Amino acid sequence: MKMQVKNTKQNKTYLAAGIGILCLLLFAIFLGCSGASEAAQKKFTYEYGVFLNAEPKDIPRMKDYRIIVLDAQYYSKKNITKLKKAGHTVLSYINLGSIEEFRPYYKDYEDLTLSVYENWEDERWVDVTKKRWQNFVGKTLANRLLKKGVDGFFVDNTDVYYHYKTKAVFKGVTNILKKLKKKGYVLINGGDTYVKAYGKKYKTLKPILSGVNQETIFSAVDWENDRELIANDDENRRYFKSYVKFVKSFKKDVYLLEYTKDKSLIKKIKSYCRKNKFKYYITDTLDLTVP
After folding, report:
1. Cα dihedral sign for 249, 251, 252, 258?
2. Are residues 135 and 109 in the same domain?
3. 226 pLDDT band (50/70/90 cuts)?
4. Residue 223's pLDDT is what?
5. 188-220 core/surface letters (b: 16 or more CB in 10 A; e: else)
6. Best exposed site among 1, 41, 164, 271 by fewest CB in 10 Å?
7. Domain count of the fold of the chain
8. Mean per-residue pLDDT for 201-212?
9. Which domain holds residue 278?
């Protein structure tokens, strides 16, 4: 039954006082929440860090990075929960288009492997047209990682479509990405050939990704000279800038991963990212451990 307030002067006074107190309390709560939000924003020194070769023992050294990319296969649910409670967003590496020999499931899918992955002799491209692989990556493996508490996926090797450019491979990549996107945040590493093809065909990127991480727009790796870190040439730089601009035009997130020790190059990277509101991680090693 609805309570009725008697319309007397005294009750009006009490009511006004009560409303005043309530407003003060709500204002205080608002200020507290606002302050907490600002504190959370100031909590992390860096917006983004990619630590694919880090281990659980390295977790304390990740404290300065808000968004963390790691290989959750090597972390427990307890490890991920610890990071989440500290305010981090955690994305797990997931390999869509190839498979490494050290993965515990390699033997189960070895029969689906194709050619050797250049510069990575222990890795093979995978036939993504096979439903068996699509269901494993998009369901079984994804669910296994999500149960650990990750927020989404850092999806590698959609470039399988660049190496095997067929309608069937395009469809296979798309099927896996759509499965992943329904489960969480999807950050595609590279993938320019596939992503541009999808965007131009369907005029949207929403079903397949949340953002793109592009490696080496400004920097580059000289694989033939002991993996020396060098500056990228102008042609490649222009190409990848146009690619991330394409992704941005669909209102999707853009991240840069650069490998360099060059201070002048670092300055250019930071300036470019600030101007375009991109997130970035700059490291001086290919190891991708915590600095």
Report:
1. positive
2. yes
3. confident
4. 85
5. bbbbbbbbebbbeeeeebeebbbbbbbbbbbbb
6. 1
7. 2
8. 98
9. 44-283
